Amino acid sequence: MSMISTRGACPVSTSYAILRGLAPDGGLYVPETSPSFTLEEISALSGMDYAARAVFILQRYLPDFTEEELKNSISGAYGKKFDDPAIAPLKKVKDDTYYLELWHGPTLAFKDMALQLLPYLLTLSARKNGENREIFILVATSGDTGKAALEGFLDVPGTRCCVFYPQEGVSRAQQLQMVTTGGSNTHVIAVEGNFDDAQSGVKKIFSDPGFAGTMNEQGRVLSSANSINYGRLVPQIVYYFSAYADLLRDGAISLGEEVNFCVPTGNFGDILAADYAKRAGLPIGKLICASNANNVLTDFITTGVYDISSRPFYKTEAPSMDILISSNLERLIFTLTGNDAAATAAYMKKLSTEKRYEITEDMLVKLQNNYAAGCVDADALNAEIARCYAEDRYLIDTHTAVASAVLRAYRSQTGDRRKSVVVSTASPYKFGPAVLEAIGGERGGLDDIACCGVLEKMSGVAMPAQIAALPTLPIRHTQTCRKDQMEEAILHALG
Ligand SMILES: *Cc1c(COP(=O)(O)O)cnc(C)c1O
């Protein structure tokens, strides 16, 4: 199996695609053909633990890697850093509705599922491709990705990780999570500006040959851990198979029965992994794409028009989904065109020049065959947290609440009664103040961590140790920089 670019560049190996991240033509790497799994193989997953399931699935997606390499990587990634031995436990809540909890890793959000494994895949990929320089991961974060990347690359030999976050743009809990990171290969720098400033600064650094030259002289090569990397996409395929295997094991479904997944979506990475699982033979009915007030994807899936030209950007209580350009959508567009790189490149060009494109009728039919979509505003989001807590005694975070509410609306609109799984992407304690207010608690003048304490008392749901420990951890990173001095800030940090 080789990897091809959505915009037509030469095929490469899977390890090379992981090492490079983006294809040289600006496209994203996708597998040339999908692996496939028989129902018997899927059934056999039921008897395995999460790590064994991951080895079985990922072998087919990562043919450059030996079984031994995958076993070692996976057991290192999904081990004691997770607070639930199931790694991605499936909770039955009621009425054929399940929640797939993807936040039992070290940073309490689903990004750990990929970013705990990526460092292993990346360092193996470097070795396989004769890359001996230190891999220097640069990240701009609006909150969750930064900490997950820091935690994933922490003290991984041959790597170094530097995160830029907007000084005014992250929650106190998110900031504390980052600036208290230990390890000898981590750097965290606050940018005087917003997320866009941090993000465009990082993009500029990536395209500056002079800076790449300086890094090379220091024996370093820049790389990225963001969600367009194939190495971040494939670990996410595993948990869809795992959820299905759990349903089979528990006798909730029969082999071959279709299950829907409802996914709170931002960059379209998580839901795309479900699409890949479906292509590989997992019996999935509908993929329900859930959005908050930033509902560009809802409009796209219902009309076939992707339009950001006159769309306001809303800051919501589910910030990891506040996004207008979902970069992984390019991979789906490529599939819908029948793997037509020229057509895909043309759509992406239109998006950057006209801020809008419209897919063909034929593509829309294919899209709607697999996908449904919905969105909720702030009131509906908060009401869903309250309802879930009151009716089901189940505490969910703001992102999960978006999906939970969209699933309910989808069911009442369509009458689709297939068993459904809501993908739960963050611990409620990661967004403690919002969750507390949604269930009727008083925020008062309390800071984020104190709010979590009140939430724990009110709900009886234990606060994760990582949150409780935050105020006691020493602050290790205090560097700040102006948005036009990010390169200098890196050189200073490297000493
Ligand atoms: C990143 C994130 C999402 C969105 O996932 P995408 O793969 O970008 O669609 C949803 N919820 C949480 C908590 C996240 O951190």
List its traits.
five-stranded parallel β-sheet; 46% helix; alpha/beta; 22 helices; Rossmann fold; 495 residues; binds pyridoxal-5'-phosphate; globular; six-stranded mixed β-sheet; 15% strand
Question: What does this protein look like?
Answer:
The longest helix is centred in the middle third of the chain and has 20 residues, at 230-249. It is built from 22 helices and 15 strands. The relative contact order is 0.14. Helix 8 links the parallel strand 6 and strand 7. The protein has a domain at 90-110 and 231-429: Rossmann fold. The strands form four sheets. A six-stranded mixed sheet has the order 3-4-14-9-10-13, sandwiched between helices. A five-stranded parallel sheet has the order 8-5-6-7-15, with helices on both faces. Strands 1-2 form a two-stranded antiparallel ribbon. Helices cover 46% and strands 15% of the residues. With 495 residues, the protein is α/β, with parallel strands linked by helices. The chain has helices at 14-20, 39-45, 50-61, 67-77, 111-115, 118-128, 144-153, 172-179, 195-206, 209-217, 230-249, 269-279, 296-303, 329-336, 341-354, 361-370, 378-392, 398-414, 432-438, 448-459, 465-469, 486-494; strands at residues 3-5, 29-31, 90-94, 97-101, 134-140, 159-166, 186-192, 220-224, 259-264, 284-291, 305-307, 356-358, 371-375, 420-424, 480-482. It is globular and about 60 Å long. Pyridoxal-5'-phosphate is lined by residues 109-111, 144, 227, 264-270, 320-321, 399, 425-426.
